[in-house]
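Worked example 2:
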Amino acid sequence: MKRKNSSVSVNAPKEAVEAVLEDLPSFITNWPYVVKVSTRNGVSAEIMLPRFVFKFRDTYQFDYHTDYNSYIYDGTGKRGHLVLLVTLKEWQKSTSVELELSYQGKGKFWLGKTLQDFVDRIGKSLKELAENRPVSEELAVPAGKEHGFISEHVDFSDPMSVANFLAKSRMVHSGLHIIGKNGFFDLVGELRANVKDKVLYISGITNDGTKSFKVLLEGSRILAIEYRHENGPKALKVQNEADARAAVELASLIEGAFMVNVWVPVGGV
């Protein structure tokens, strides 16, 4: 197998890093080169590894294993086998993370630089998710939803809240969409022409993994949003009118060609 290693120091306690690693769908969604994640029948991810004019694209079904301080993500595809080993060591004010990515399959001798970039950026994503995760803050519980599909709002700075939502949801759409300048709500209108559910969870990622977004909507109202681009991520949970205006402004920045996935709560709202 082809192996590449990386390391990162996370300025957060071990528990915060573990919470990210244990949220399998959200963690893998934030890997580079991931174009689609499905939680139907376990967790699977479609990953496109670019190399010159070639693109090594495969869908991997992931098994997850953990022991005292290591986490293993074992992905089996039709044309390849991908394994990520993450090992943690806690210090007084930070957590040291060692990552080893192994790949066996088509093009393994050509993918050295791509695999190194892959594992480096997984480490960077893990660092960002853990450092931006609230450690002691409890999730807010809203006044009752009439259907009761979920007991808390999604907060994209807390990966566990995303996992709770996805566990009670199903994917209803996946496809490539071009979002023009200030065009996010045009995308929402296009999606709502075919998806009638009131609550939508929409995620998107570019083919090169440099940009991604996640938005939770109730009707046309944004409940939570995260947008990642070259300058890093920004996440916002809407709790008041000022947050609502900031969420719309953040959504207006989303622009480009995205592989878009849409989930709805099981049974609707």
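DSSP finds six helices and 13 strands in the chain. The mean pLDDT is 82.
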